[in-house]
Design brief:
CATH class of the largest domain: Mainly Alpha
Distance between the termini: 43 Å
CATH superfamily of the largest domain: Formiminotetrahydrofolate cyclodeaminase monomer, up-and-down helical bundle
CATH topology of the largest domain: Four Helix Bundle (Hemerythrin (Met), subunit A)
Radius of gyration: 23 Å
Largest sheet: 7 strands, mixed
Number of helices: 15
Shape: globular
Number of domains: 3
Number of strands: 11
CATH architecture of the largest domain: Up-down Bundle
Order of helices and strands: EEHEEHEHEHHEEHEEHEHHHHHHHH
Length: about 475
């Protein structure tokens, strides 16, 4: 049986020195079980991105060794580049890949943070899903002012206190953000212009913080004489690279500028490229023709087997997993109705909904398993001795993780409910009943997911820890289309 696998994507503030890059690579690959998949060094940004996969403990060890090398070899007092930075090792995210949950990655991030702080005396900030404060979920908020600004604030401003380590900046290695997150795609688009002001204007228009596309961070830079819109796509199942490219191209044309090229920094999940290719080829059923996908499906568990588990005496899989499955079924039906409508004039304006429904279906299918794993975390925390130090914190952290999973379901289900209504109104009339079933399933998934958020938040010893999650869940329910 294959071992559990996480992805780790450390970013280092070095894009020039081949000796340092080689030393970082050597530190990572020396750990048994680690597979280095990609290294990208950008001299203009003076930054490198390493991507590797490994079993969780090996991933932690490889990351720690690389952070140690970066601390020894990179001096931020002599560093200048286009990309914002606050540390020699600027950021270390863990991403679940196989038989590992997001909660597992959160625990991994915290373990690494404790060791980096204790062994290297570097202040560590937990971010994304590992964040201990809502304002630290977004990396730009932590990195405000960069190395120099943080050096002045830390130790004076309580808001700058790290999660682990000293309340002072490391004199040369700065500070490090360590976290857990879904797959992130670093995506850059170059404009056929040297005017960086245009790139900055476009970045402001499309980024989430300015009211643009969801789950998109964006800035404008000049790189090798070209204006570049540099982006982090935080959730490609919410906003795909194809959707971002179209938005940037549209904004560029409005300013009389063409797009020159795009680039991915690091690696990208295959579904992102598949969705873009399907749209470009006008091939609505591209996923149905992938050899590898068919092999994976043939090797996977059967629906009958899963239903037997659901009906069994164990508490997992349970209602949360069932809600996610209802959402995945809704996604499949929306995609089916959309494909049955392909080629009709009335459907031309929403051609991209096929890829979106497929992406949501895949996301909700993953959440079927994630919900069961989150419950297991809660159960394990409750089994700690009642007088064990940190038991209450462990239980609360597990409950927050168990609330985040159904909240992700609710986001996907709410979007599918809207898509089902849209496809039902303009789609193939012979499939109108299928669209209605999709809407009912999406509504059931949304309601069930939100009930799971409520239950987990209500169990917290400090309900305020889950207030933001509950408020978002209730908003999703309030604005969802009526059945």
């Amino acid at each position: 049986m294959p071992a559990p696998l996480v992805e780790c994507v450390p970013n280092f503030s070095e894009g020039h020195n081949s000796g340092t890059l080689d030393a970082l690579e050597g530190a990572i690959t020396a750990v048994p079980g680690v597979k280095l998949l990609d290294v990208q060094a950008d001299p203009a940004h003076h930054r490198s991105v390493f991507t590797f996969v490994a079993p969780p403990d090996a991933a932690l060890e490889a990351a720690l060794r690389a952070v140690r090398v970066a601390t020894e070899r990179i001096d931020l007092t002599k560093h200048a580049g286009e990309h914002p930075r606050m540390g020699a090792t600027d950021v270390v995210p863990f991403v679940p890949v196989r038989d590992v949950t997001m909660d597992d990655c959160v625990a991994l991030a915290r373990r690494l943070g404790e060791r980096v702080a204790a062994e290297l005396e570097i202040p560590v900030y937990l971010y994304a899903r590992a964040a201990t404060r809502p304002e630290r979920e977004r990396l730009p908020e932590i990195r405000k002012g960069e190395f120099e600004g943080l050096r002045d604030r830390i130790g004076r401003d309580p808001a700058a206190d790290p999660d682990f380590g000293p309340r002072r900046i490391h004199p040369t290695a700065g500070a490090t953000a360590i976290g857990a997150r879904p797959f992130l795609v670093a995506f850059n688009i170059y404009l056929d212009s040297s005017d960086v002001a245009i790139a900055k204007e476009i970045a402001k228009q499309i980024r989430t913080s300015s009211g643009g596309l969801p789950a998109v961070q964006a800035s404008g830079f000049e790189v090798a004489g070209q204006a570049q819109v540099s982006m982090n796509l935080l959730d490609i199942d919410t906003t795909s690279p194809a959707a971002v490219f179209a938005a940037v191209a549209r904004e560029a044309r409005a300013r009389g500028v063409d797009v020159l090229k795009s680039e991915v920094v690091g690696l990208v999940p295959e579904r992102a490229i598949l969705g873009a290719a399907a749209a470009a080829l006008k091939l609505p059923d591209a996923a149905d023709h992938l050899l590898e996908a068919k092999i994976r499906a043939a090797e996977g568990p059967t629906l009958d087997g899963w239903l037997e588990e659901l009906a069994g005496g164990a508490p997992v899989p349970g209602g949360g997993s069932a809600a996610a499955l209802a959402g995945a079924l809704a996604g499949a039906l929306v995609a089916m109705v959309a494909r049955l409508t392909t080629g009709r004039k009335a459907y031309a304006a929403v051609q991209g909904r096929v890829a979106e429904a497929d992406a949501l279906r895949a996301q909700l299918r993953r959440l079927v398993d994630d919900d069961a794993a989150a419950y297991a975390r809660v159960s394990a925390a409750y089994k700690l001795p009642k007088d064990a130090p940190g038991r209450r914190r462990a239980v609360d952290e597990a409950l927050v993780g168990a609330a985040r999973t159904p909240l992700a379901m609710a986001r996907g289900a709410a979007r599918l409910a809207a898509l089902a209504g849209e496809i039902g109104a303009i789609g193939n009339k012979n499939a109108s009943s299928d669209a209605k079933v999709a809407a009912v399933l999406a509504s059931a998934a949304l309601t069930g997911a939100i009930e799971n958020v409520r239950v987990n938040v209500a169990s917290l010893s400090e309900p305020g820890l889950g207030r933001s999650l509950l408020e978002e869940a209730e908003r999703l329910l309030a604005v969802s289309p009526p059945r």
